[in-house]
Amino acid sequence: MESCRILNIIISTQDHEDVGEDHGGLTLIGQFSLGLFYYIKRGIKCMCRELTQWEKAVEFHGHECPGLAIGYKACEAAIKKLGIRFSADEEIVCVTENDACGVDTVQVITGCTFGKGNLLYKGTGKMAFSFFNCSNGQSLRMIVKPLNEEMDRRQRQEYLLNSPAEELFNFSKPSFELPEKARLFTTVICENCGEGAPEHKVRINDGKKVCLDCFMDYSRGW
What we know:
By secondary structure, the chain is of the alpha+beta class. The chain contains seven helices and nine strands.
């Protein structure tokens, strides 16, 4: 970007100045301004450098951790083995069997999100991800192999990030078919609370159309 190029020229010019000289003669405002300049300068350097995929995932998630690294390596394997790219719509679908940290990496790197309908949750609790390439019908499921419990948090993260995918995951074909594409549904107004809900989430209670919040379920065991 042109703005980054200009800022980098300013920064490189300032970098040649003697930043270690005695600034004792500066006023308090002057010292504050100088400190603020170098703080902003460091930030500009970061902004003008494109973040790596890992850095983007950490930024989105809020912190780095082994769970995030698992999702990162799963995406890396899916990209390599299925030849997928960032999914602008529903070209790629991911079925995650957990709701752990790694799911955030999947959203950032592959573009599979709950909002687009191409990130689906299958709650087995397993650290497993299945990727479907809808353009050619290819699919791949991967599940994390047991990890060495003697490693601490930092060691586990470094091990995950620096190990080949084949060492981390068992790969197979998903045992389930992909559900239909996301659909739009007619909104029905609940006759109890007055709130709208999609028609496939509406139930009948005492002859009234009600939402799931207002629905009083009846069950005697099965």
